[in-house]
Amino acid sequence: MRIVKIYEQSKNNILENLLQRSPSQYEEYSDRVNAILSDVRTKKDEALFNYTKRFDGCELTQDTIRVSESEIEEAYTVVDTSLLDVIRKAIVNIRNYHEKQKQYSWFDSTPEGTILGQKVTALESVGVYVPGGKAAYPSSVLMCVIPAKVAGVERIVMVTPPGKDGKVNPNTLVAAKEAGVTEVYKVGGAQAIGALAYGTESIKKVCKIVGPGNIYVALAKKAVFGYVSIDSIAGPSEILVLADETANPRFVAADLLSQAEHDELASAILVTTSKELAEKVSEEVEGFVKVLSRKEIIQQSLDNYGYILLADTMDEAIEVANEIASEHLEIITKDPFNTMTKIRNAGAIFLGSYSSEPLGDYFAGPNHVLPTNGTAKFFSPLSVDDYIKKSSIISYSREALEPIHKDIIKFATEEQLTAHANSIAVRFEK
Description:
Elements: E1 3-5, H1 8-19, H2 30-43, H3 45-56, H4 69-78, H5 81-99, E2 106-109, E3 114-122, E4 125-129, H6 138-151, E5 155-160, H7 170-179, E6 183-186, H8 189-198, E7 208-210, H9 215-224, E8 229-230, E9 238-243, H10 249-260, E10 267-272, H11 275-291, H12 295-305, E11 306-310, H13 314-324, E12 328-332, H14 336-340, E13 348-351, H15 357-362, E14 388-396, H16 398-401, H17 405-414, H18 418-425
Parallel strand pairs: 1-11, 4-5, 4-7, 5-6, 7-8, 9-10, 9-12, 10-11, 12-13
Antiparallel strand pairs: 2-3, 3-14
Helix pairs in contact: 2-3, 2-8, 2-9, 4-7, 5-6, 5-7, 6-7, 8-9, 10-11, 17-18
Function: Catalyzes the sequential NAD-dependent oxidations of L-histidinol to L-histidinaldehyde and then to L-histidine.
Protein name: Histidinol dehydrogenase
Binding site for Zn(2+): 259, 262, 361, 420
């Protein structure tokens, strides 16, 4: 991996390079995505079937687009029983973590006759996109579905690309069943997002779409926002390891490559104050790349977006970490908890040598659907909050309104909204 000394220009160059990975930088795909969405909106199922045949090589009909109970039962017969056991253990951890995020309605009343409050309501329906393609991700099913179940969403629809044989990956199907998905459809890409947003003869529209996907999925979610809600527009995966001389270079190298293997646009960055650690990590990375199964993808990711950044001080290293605002941030320092208190921007923070990023991907409990491309400066991980909406509650008696009604009339009159003022005034006409 390239080792770069941190100075203002190098930092700016790296940030600019990383931002090129954002879905917002791929507007040349927008026309194709918009054409697909327009087709789905007007031709509905016909468009879904055509695009699935074209992109996935699979013939679908209204009778086969939805995964049947028998197909789910068949999936259970081929899934490794030890994997099923792990999925069930992970579900317990994920559910327990997200149950602590639940919000409840509340009401405050006063003797004067006012009641103010907030009513929390689960969304009626949610669409969950689960990628196919280079790899199947049953873990993403759990992370998207379980918070929705905890929130109380009644209809959870999963869409995922089928294989040429018309089947869905059995691990994905079993994860969906275990997590509580109510409907599964064999459709992927921008056309699946269109179906969830607009509805077709086979797929009823939903209120919100969540889940990661490729550039077509990301741009499609961006385009349908407003017809439905979305979680975020996710970019390629990324990891930043913040380490000092106490870190184990072999551990650090392994952790960096855990994200580099996702795809060629993934980013893996080490920020350290130790030149010795930097050089040892670079050596370990070279050794790992030679033996790992996805070495071509890993190498291209490292060539494009892999860096080892040398800082003079830990404060400078922390400043860089906050500026990059990585999706995953590992802190491997003498006192990682103290270092963590200085971090403002990160999707998920992993503390200490034995809290490697895959722990969060699969098992610990916190959500692995995280803000990318610097959006951790203003976005949060997927949570129960994403599956609820809130309504304000206001109730005043005449006795409570009377002493303040002239204040409201004054405010409305100053804004030249006389009908607003009149709405209050008529209640105190003599």
